[in-house]
Specification:
heterodimer; A: 326 residues; mainly alpha; ABC transporter involved in vitamin B12 uptake, BtuC; two-stranded antiparallel ribbon; 76% helix; B: 495 residues; Rossmann fold; six-stranded mixed beta sheet; 17 helices; 24 strands; globular
Chain lengths: 326, 495
């Protein structure tokens, strides 16, 4: 009752505000659905179960990376090293798998390797105060080099069947990479939304100084998001090596750009503090559908790159306009 | 005959998306005078000034300069016509020098494109000397204090050879001594025939500098007249629209015997030296000092944002951990910071998230947030502090200054502190909101809390505090228990 009386002078602006909130929340899904409808008319194959499983499977790697990237970008950071970490972790886990240590050990090794490189990133950013762009740019090169050193530049093949199942196996009718992606997205969405840690991530990105005066361990939070990003890059590396049936040292080149694109299209601000996993999910799916759609239409991969670039710029432009209207 | 009108605005109106921000703005500025524009937050002052400067376009109304109707599409048009403005928001370019900042875009040049630095620096020195501002023309902006940056901003406005100068809260970031210098500069400008529109929430300042006044309320003109014909109470009545019951909060306040906060010999190199003081439950200790006296730095250090070089802080007889704000909060202390936008709020965060920000430990179990508790806390605080918001989920950046400040207070109170540190708790907010915050602080200490309030406004401290500690050059000069002290006496102690 009390809130009613308080809100009285604002009632004239409330519906407008609600409309804007609705657009903010559902704008991207709307674009996504529209694109799907257009594609469904353009190609009859598009709306088939098989094609959608393809889209989702192809999206899963980028999706897992993008979930971690969302955490980093929410704190006003950036992680350029996820592509290299992915390759390094994939190779580590494949090596462990071929030594016959079993699936659990192999997957753990990959995720651990990724998390460790994330720890180094986090230490550089949070404790040495190196700008995230520079710190992770360094890691991009270091991790890639280490990947080549690790196995003398050659791929790891002859992976055991149990391991390969992670990439090409199925859980009921759904591919295992898709299940992994879904579980990862769900867990990290819940953490961001329902835990104190999630709020701190938003607060640190929204205003570092205020977060500090409010008693939040700003350094710890900054450190942690790079570990999250590294850990998930490690997981993505494991899944990718299983899907391609071998761990390639040159895997995941420029994957960081697709991950960043998914986050940005999903409405997370590069200046930190606003955004969500759900947005990122749709961002990643949009990229997946565009790639798939252009393939189905027989557009050459050169044009596909141009199209993807245009869409990223457009998505951010819409965001800029929306903010200016306020 | 009365001096000619320099600038006249009539029936100026502006609406944003159908919601009027300004319905009827009027102002008549005489050459050679200082004209105070008064009004609470949301009275339409900023919109009106924005229209005068060509930042915002008006929907209706007439503006004339020297009798000629004018219409500015952009700030550079207004500047060209001789109207300059000093804004509240400071926007220096940090790695450029003072001189480069002042003459940005208007640098003296050789051959049309090479900057003549010798001439640039000479001009700046002349300008700063003329204004009597103590700032080095060649020092980079990021080395300056907030007060000095504000002075540079003022000097920049003076560097335009203007006939109308708009000053929006020019003293919000500077201390009394700098304000004195500014007033001298203003008088020199009016002596040359320029007119000044002066906006400030500090009413004592208006009485000191303004010749005439105009009051806006709820987006419309209320009244105008000569400053010498009215008193402070009349002005407050005009701004608030009703009689403000100015209660003497101190009556019947009893402080207890034991100490709540005890500071012993606290020092930090280059900021403050050897400060010892005690605060008891049930009392407000005011801290008065000029900018640079170390008062804010002192609070930040107690709170744990910086580490002291020596000395100790005890809260309820227990030593307070140093350098860890989260432990300080857990021990029962909160800090309302000097600048709510920079270090008080997460501006794009919701009202609820901001209120709960420090208190999540008590609102969660196993780090899972209890949404019901969080909502309850926010509801309770909104009610207790009379925060005006349509929804708890609105971002705080959409609120007025007074409401934002209340959100900061709500955040600080939600951890249930026993000792509250407030650094300029009423900066840049209107008279009504100020009274509410005074009332709140009084309530807090009456309930057994202890508070330290730092303020540049002597009347505020005299009104609010049981004792006043005076800081000067990083040292504690005296603690006065005589709150019947005059403002002049306080200022002379501090300078």
């Amino acid at each position: 009752m009390n809130t009613k009386t308080l809100s009285a002078p604002f009632t004239s602006s409330a519906p407008r505000h609600r409309l804007r909130l609705t657009l903010d929340r559902f704008g991207l899904p709307l674009v996504f659905i529209l694109l799907c409808i257009v594609m469904a008319f353009a190609s009859e194959y598009f709306m088939t179960w098989r094609n959608w499983m393809d889209i989702l499977r192809q999206t899963s790697i980028n999706g897992i990376l993008a979930v971690g990237m969302t955490y980093v970008i929410l704190t006003k950071g950036i992680d350029l090293s996820v592509g290299s970490i992915l390759a390094f972790a994939g190779l580590c886990s494949a090596l462990v798998a071929t030594q016959g240590y079993g699936l659990l050990a192999a997957v753990s090794a990959g995720m651990f390797a990724g998390a460790m490189l994330g720890v180094v990133n986090g230490f550089m950013v949070a404790n040495l105060s190196i700008p995230p762009f520079v710190a992770t740019l360094g890691m991009l090169s270091i991790a890639r080099g280490m990947t080549f050193i690790l196995n003398d530049g050659s791929p790891v093949t002859d992976l055991p069947d149990a391991y390969l199942a992670l990439g090409i196996g199925k859980f009921g009718p759904i591919g295992i990479p898709i299940v992994i992606f879904a579980v990862v997205a769900l867990i990290f969405w819940m953490v961001l939304r329902y835990t104190t840690y999630g709020r701190y991530v938003y607060a640190v990105g929204g205003n570092e100084k205020s977060a500090r005066t409010s008693g939040i361990g700003v350094r710890k939070v900054m450190f942690s998001v790079y570990v999250v990003s590294g850990l998930l890059a490690g997981l993505a590396g494991v899944v990718l090596s299983a899907r391609t049936t071998s761990a390639l040292p040159q895997a995941g080149m420029s994957y960081e750009l697709d991950a960043i694109a998914a986050v940005v299209i999903g409405g997370t601000s590069l200046s930190g503090g606003t955004g969500s996993i759900v947005g990122t999910l749709f961002g990643a799916l949009l990229i997946g559908v565009i790639n798939n759609g252009l393939n189905l239409l027989g557009v050459s991969s050169y044009y596909q790159q141009v199209a993807k670039g245009l869409i990223i710029v457009l998505a951010v432009l819409i965001d800029v306009w929306r903010k200016r209207k306020r | 005959m009365a001096p000619p009108l320099l600038l006249q605005a009539e029936h100026v109106a502006k609406a944003y998306a159908g919601i009027p921000a300004l319905r009827d703005g009027r102002l008549s500025l005489r050459a050679g005078s200082v004209h105070a524009l008064c009004g609470g937050n949301g009275a339409g002052k900023s919109t009106f000034l924005g229209i005068l400067m060509g930042i915002t376009q008006r929907d209706a109304g007439e503006i004339s300069l020297n009798g000629q109707p004018v219409h500015f599409n952009r700030p550079s048009d207004a500047l060209a016509a001789g109207i300059a403005m000093i804004t509240q928001e400071l926007e220096p370019i940090p790695f450029m020098t003072v001189a480069e900042n002042i003459w940005l875009g208007r640098e003296p040049r050789h051959v049309g494109c090479i900057v003549d630095y010798k001439e640039l620096n000479r001009r700046t020195r002349v300008l700063l000397e003329e204004l009597d501002f103590d700032v080095d023309a060649e020092s980079p902006m990021h080395r300056l204090s907030v007060a000095q940056i504000q002075l540079v901003e003022i000097a920049k406005a003076f560097s335009h050879d203007c006939q109308v100068m708009i000053m929006d809260e020019p003293t919000s970031a500077i201390g009394e001594r700098e304000a004195e210098t500014l007033f001298k500069a203003i008088r020199r400008l009016t002596a040359r025939g320029a007119g000044i529109i002066y906006v400030s929430h500090r009413l004592s300042e208006l009485a000191q500098i303004a010749d005439e006044y105009t009051i806006f309320r709820d987006g419309a003109f209320v009244e105008s007249g000569r400053m010498s014909d009215i008193d402070r109470a009349h002005l407050v009545r005009g701004i608030v629209g009703q009689e403000l019951q100015s209660i003497d909060h101190k009556i019947g306040r009893e402080c207890q015997e034991q100490t709540c906060l005890s500071v012993e010999g606290l020092s930090r190199e280059g900021e403050f030296q050897d400060i010892s003081l005690q605060v008891r439950p049930g009392e407000i200790l005011g801290i008065y000092g000029l900018t640079g006296s170390g008062r804010s730095e002192f609070l930040n250090c107690i709170y744990g944002l910086t580490l002291p070089d020596s000395g100790s802080v005890m809260l309820k007889g227990k030593p307070l951990p140093t350098g860890v704000p989260s432990s300080t909060i857990a021990a029962g202390m909160s800090l309302v910071t000097e600048d709510r936008k920079e270090s008080g709020l997460v501006l794009n965060g919701s009202v609820m998230a901001n209120i709960a920000l420090s208190a999540y430990k008590s609102l969660s179990s196993w780090s899972l947030i209890n949404a019901r508790k969080e909502n309850e806390l926010a509801q309770r605080m909104v009610k207790r502090l009379h925060i005006k918001t349509a929804s708890l989920n609105l971002p705080v950046e959409s609120m007025s200054g007074g409401n934002q400040q209340k959100v900061v207070l709500a955040k600080c109170l939600s951890t249930q502190p026993i000792c509250l540190l407030c650094d300029e708790p009423t900066r840049g907010i209107d008279e009504g909101a100020k009274q509410e915050i005074y009332h709140l602080l009084d309530e807090f200490v009456r309930a057994g809390g202890a508070a330290i309030v730092v303020s540049s406004e002597a009347p505020e401290l005299l009104h609010l505090s049981d004792r006043i500690a005076v800081f000067k050059g990083g040292r504690l000069v005296t603690i006065s228990t005589d709150t019947a002290l005059s403002q002049e006496a306080l200022l002379s102690l501090a300078s």
